[in-house]
Amino acid sequence: METGIIVSLALYFILMIAIGLYAQRQSTSDSEGYLLAGRNLPPSVAALSAGASDMSGWLLLGLPGALYATGLVEAWIGIGLFVGALFNWLIVAPRLRAQTEKLGNALTIPEFLANRFPDKALALRVTSAVVIVAFFTVYTAAGLVGGGKLFATSFAPIVGDWGLSPYMAGILLTAGVVVAYTMIGGFLAVSLTDFVQGIIMLLALIIMPLVVMFGAGGEAGASLTEVQPGFLSLTEGLTFIGFLSAIAWGLGYFGQPHIIVRFMAIRSVPEVKNARWIGMGWMALCLAGALGVGLAGRAYVERNGMTLEDPETIFMLLAETLFHPLVTGFLLAALLAAIMSTISSQLLVSSSSLTEDFYRLFLRKDASERESVNVSRLFVLIVAIAAIVIASDPESEVLGLVSNAWAGFGAAFGPMILLSLTWDRMTGAGAVAGLITGAVVVFGWIAAGWSASFLGGPGVYEIIPGFIAALVAIIAVSKATQGSVAANPA
């Protein structure tokens, strides 16, 4: 069995590196090529790259695990994310693609904000870049923790003789492959590997629930209603606050730099529409597959008298139980692909901010294109090393910070991005106020414990108050400062 898994993973890793080498020859001669693939991504690549970099291991671990443990009511988070992603494609994607090129050919989100609001350019560029780098270093660490735990759970016999713990070996191997193709090929490599990883994830999420329900032992998939009362209900135990907190996850899309930067790289504005439908179709199928893995997996475990201590490992359990080793290796590669696609995107966005919004802004304003590309590669490595250090403790709670970081990005950047693209009376002072207010409210809410319990009742997801407060701050401060500083029209 180990040989089949090793062969599948080796082929997967070789393919990722090969794509990095191909991309290196195509689009790394200047900063626009390295950081945005020359704004020349086909709609299909941009769509699956945005989806794969978004979903991460949550799609194959977190969502199936939540459904396995609680039932169909957990699907509301996926529904909220789907609606949020759709509006992100409808509202943000075409405008951001057009305006980032029009306003100084901005290569990063902080640079776009600086060009959009020149009166507060330095404050916006520095503050947003610091937030991006700090949060994405933690985000990257969270992904590496996922890779480490995957190896510790499924590949311990394989890596046990490497002189490292399986957990640490998993972190280093995951980071090594991701850093290699990201450093070599830049944004094009990240996008093309995301495209391939997105296809692998989709195939895995279609195949697995079908095999569970209709393959050998598939009779277990026909007894979902016997698991527990209300297991297939969308409203069982659901409160109004719980419903709002679940669907509010969709608000986070508008402020995720590693997702919206894909919109900046699409080949042309008219092609955004094609990318939208490809991306939303991929997301719908993947979410449906994740639902199937969680629900059918619970029935399979119950009917076969199996024990599963951690619900989030249901995908791995089914992969190892029901499939030939070569297919198991492919399915575990799909899980690794979900993790790696997000890590690579976060590394590159962090690197681009460090290069464009720090190095070229303060240290080397006249840096050549080749120098800038090489510095970007160096920053990819530096951020990766910092993330490895954070992730090295297997008891680290960094994974618990992912939902908080999603809320922090969504509240700090979301309202600012939305209004900067759609409201020409917004001012730079309003943008700064929204950025700071959203971040402060989110972290204040978390510190007060109101995400877990609010006024004696269920907790409220921190993105809700943070997003609302940032919107109010932007509108109020923009109206108060419109007379003193003219807004730069979008």
From TrEMBL:
Keyword Glycosyltransferase part of the UniProt annotation: no
One term under GO cellular component: plasma membrane
Catalytic activity annotation: L-proline(in) + Na(+)(in) = L-proline(out) + Na(+)(out)
GO MF terms held by the record: L-proline transmembrane transporter activity; proline:sodium symporter activity; sodium ion binding
Keyword Cell membrane: yes
Biological process (GO), any one: proline transport
Membrane-spanning parts: 6-24, 75-93, 122-147, 167-192, 199-217, 237-256, 277-301, 321-343, 374-392, 398-419, 431-453, 459-477
InterPro entries the UniProt entry points to: Na/Glc_symporter_sf (IPR038377), Na/Pro_symporter (IPR011851), Na/solute_symporter (IPR001734), Na/solute_symporter_CS (IPR018212), Sodium:Solute_Symporter (IPR050277)
Its membrane topology: Multi-pass membrane protein
Compartment list: Cell inner membrane; Cell membrane
Keywords: Amino-acid transport, Cell inner membrane, Cell membrane, Ion transport, Membrane, Sodium, Sodium transport, Symport, Transmembrane, Transmembrane helix, Transport
NCBIfam families: Na_Pro_sym, sss
Function: Catalyzes the sodium-dependent uptake of extracellular L-proline.
Family to which the UniProt record says this protein belongs: Belongs to the sodium:solute symporter (SSF) (TC 2.A.21) family.
Protein name: Sodium/proline symporter
Lineage, opening ranks: Bacteria, Pseudomonadati, Pseudomonadota, Alphaproteobacteria, Sphingomonadales
